Amino acid sequence: MEAGINDKAKGMKNYTKYGIGYFMPPVESMNWTKKDHIEKAPIWCSVDLRDGNQALIVPMSLEEKIEFFDLLCSLGFKEIEVGFPAASETEYEFLRALIEKDLIPDDVTIQVLTQSREHIIQKTFEAIKGAKNVIVHLYNSTSVAQREQVFKKSKEEITEIALFGAKMIDEYASKMPETNFMFEYSPESFTGTEIDFALDICNAVIDVWKPRPERKVIINLPATVSMSMPHVYASQIEYMSNNLKYRDDVIVSLHPHNDRGTAVADCELGILAGGDRIEGTLFGNGERTGNADIVTVAMNLYSHGVNPELDFSNMPYIVEKYEQFTDLKVHPRQPYGGKLVFAAFSGSHQDAIAKGMKYREEKDPDKWNVPYIPIDPSDINRKYEADVIRINSQSGKGGVAYILETAYGHKIPKEMREELGYLMKHVSDVGHKELSHEKIYEIFTKEYVNRKERIDLVDATFRKLPNSGSLGDGGMEVDAEIIVNGERKFFTGRGNGRIDAIRDVFRKNTGANVYHFVTYEEHALEGDSNSRAAAYVAISDEEGNIYWGVGIHNDIVYASINAFTSAINRGEAAKERLEK
């Protein structure tokens, strides 16, 4: 027997081997808790082409990388990490292609990664020769685990590694005055590093680079492995931000990974705590559980009325290109980008959304506060009809009515919606599948619209009957050509209106039940003068059963007659089913 969740012999008892591997600041650093929102967008740096690419089962080709780079530029990224050119010949060639083919916009800065080793730094500067704007990103590991287990070096020796690289980068950059440089340093595995040591090594590097307004220094504080709850990371960022040297000319950068599923929260709280910049990827692609999802962080800002300074207005296209480049799928419930993020199947949710959309249209079209939908889907090129209201066995009357109105122009009467909703739920439940908008309209049309299988009114000529006694001034007489069970017949009927006159014909000459008129509504299906009309009629039989019919015609009179005829046919079909 295979072990499962009820295997009591094992269970989850191994939790005892885990402990706290992170370090709180030496003083309380919680001022970030006094802020309730982010007021402006951070500096964004995409690491899709390096951090994201190295996480792919099959890394991108040179052509795919160039196309992805173009996409990132079109989205508004001004800083893009293009690779580790000294560690990979493919990344070296990619960087040279960008420079030699003049593919880097003048307002975009490329970022390259390097370790603190002389031959690597030398090759890195060879790779960037000819580029206009470059960030050289130096890193070395500083955590307790890395120092003790991997490098077997003291804090002082780890600091010397960082300083060696910082000095060499400064030296090489001084020989390339034609390039506008920025320097970046990351104490890799920052979250597993004693905070005072992280501060000391960062300040030591800052002292070498001596930031100034025209050449600021980036101090990147990565959650290389996410080890704590987000508030701890925020407190660490606040402490570092408050104690870094040359703070006015230092850019505090965040690079959270998503091991604990909190990378977005780490970004948001880290910005509140003093972070100025975020390194991340589209949809969070990265090694292990991924990087910070820049799409989510940016769109969260957008949902609070803050300009994210990135353009995600065509989200379906971005998703398509991302999936093409990475061979990864964006999860259907991925915030903002997933196909189902705006989809509501619940009947109560659909009803609230439909009412909220109508309220906004009528009362406050310039503001967005629709229940259950945090942003206007059209802002990112998603369609209300296709993306918001989705119909399955969990859906209700409001959703079906919303689709028929927004997609097909039918304003379903309130009294009809419950019956219609139950019909669609039944079809979905039996078929065990979602109903497309086309399928919903097909079912609606087949069940309700212009039905004529038993009784069909072929033609009718109406005459007004003045002084018609009990019929009143509105009395009408009709000469009707009808088909009953396949047989063509001609009859005359009278009533207090056109529909009542037709009812008289049907009652006396077709063998149909005695039906009573209950309610009637009508409207134009389209907005122009040549539009078709839709009519909705409800009738009841002697037992009180209600039957709805819908009629469509260019003439509102005939639309009404078609609706009444449809209702009659539905009633007769129901009677036949009972008799069988």
Brief rundown of the structure:
With 580 residues, the protein is α/β, with parallel strands linked by helices. It has helices at residues 48-52, 62-75, 89-100, 118-127, 144-151, 155-174, 195-209, 230-243, 263-272, 294-303, 315-326, 347-363, 384-387, 397-408, 414-431, 437-448, 498-509, 556-579; strands at residues 43-46, 79-83, 109-115, 133-141, 180-188, 217-223, 250-256, 277-280, 455-464, 476-484, 487-495, 516-524, 533-540, 546-553.
What does this structure look like?
The chain is an alpha/beta fold. Helix 3 links the parallel strand 2 and strand 3. The protein has 18 helices and 14 strands. Helices cover 39% and strands 18% of the residues. The strands form three sheets. The chain has an eight-stranded parallel β-barrel, surrounded by seven helices. It is elongated and about 110 Å long.
